[in-house]
Amino acid sequence: MKLRRFLTAPVIVSSMLVLAAFAFGASRDFGMFLLALLVLPFLFVLSLGVIAATTRWGEKTPDVGLAAILTLISPLVAYSAASIWDRVQFVGWAITHPEQVHQAGRADAILLGWDSWGMAGSENDSYLVSARTDRLTSLPEADRWREKLKQECPVAAAQWMWPHLYLVTTYNCPFDGVALPD
Q1: Could you tell me if 124 and 110 are in contact, meaning their C-beta atoms sit under 8 angstroms apart?
Q2: Vertex 43, ends 39 and 45: CA angle to 5°?
Q3: Rounded CA gap, 119 and 130, in Å?
Q4: Extended strands (E) in the chain
Q5: What is the pTM of this model?
Q6: Residues 74, 17: contact at Cβ < 8 Å?
Q7: Residue 100 DSSP SS3
């Protein structure tokens, strides 16, 4: 019965906004980016309008405050979704590949192509890699790791995922001999 009190128009619209913000923020597809430029501002204004209308002409209940909070955090959700999504994907991968997670750090290696995004002439490729030193978050250390593996592409970014496991991103230069997902 109490749950029904929170299933009102302001909460439903602001929840749709937060879910859309996460979905569009996690996607690296350019078409989704263009669609997000239309959908997210529309949902944001719609959410504010429903909150304002409910406050003006409806009952003042706790659901309006929840809807306002959800609406206000939606830009933060959109901004942080890509990093969160990489971690969610990594957890799924780690659960299904426990042996590779256990052996991480025994050798410097590129384990697999993780993701690829961008347009012609401006592509980014990311790889799940293992590093014995467990210090790839600094770019000089990541470049030393890359040189050990005899890869020519400079590392643009590195993100720690688990001890000795990192997501390494290159810009306009895929690593040699590593297949990327379609």
Answers
A1: no
A2: 120
A3: 28
A4: 109-119, 122-130, 155-162, 165-171
A5: 0.74
A6: yes
A7: helix
Percentage of the chain modeled with pLDDT above 90: 46
Q: Which residues contact 67 (CB under 8 A, 6 or more apart)?
A: 8, 10, 11, 13, 14, 47, 50, 51, 54
Q: List, for residues 52-80, the tens digit of each pLDDT value.
A: 988 888 776 778 899 999 999 999 999 99
Q: What are residue 59's phi and psi, to 5 degrees?
A: -80, 145
The whole-angstrom separation of Cα 71 and Cα 56 is: 18
Predicted pLDDT of residue 1: 43
Angstrom distances, CA of residue 119 to CA of 29, 115, 125, 163: 9, 14, 11, 32
Domain spans, the chain: 2-81, 98-171
Report the alpha-carbon distance of residue 127 to residue 131 in Å, rounded.
Answer: 12
CA distance 168 to 157: 6
**Count of residues making up the chain:** 182
Q: How far apart are CA 64 and CA 58, in angstroms?
A: 10
128 within 8 A of 67, measured Cβ to Cβ: no
Tokens, residue 37? 């430029």
- pLDDT, tens digit, 9 for 90 and up, residues 24-44: 999 988 889 999 999 999 999
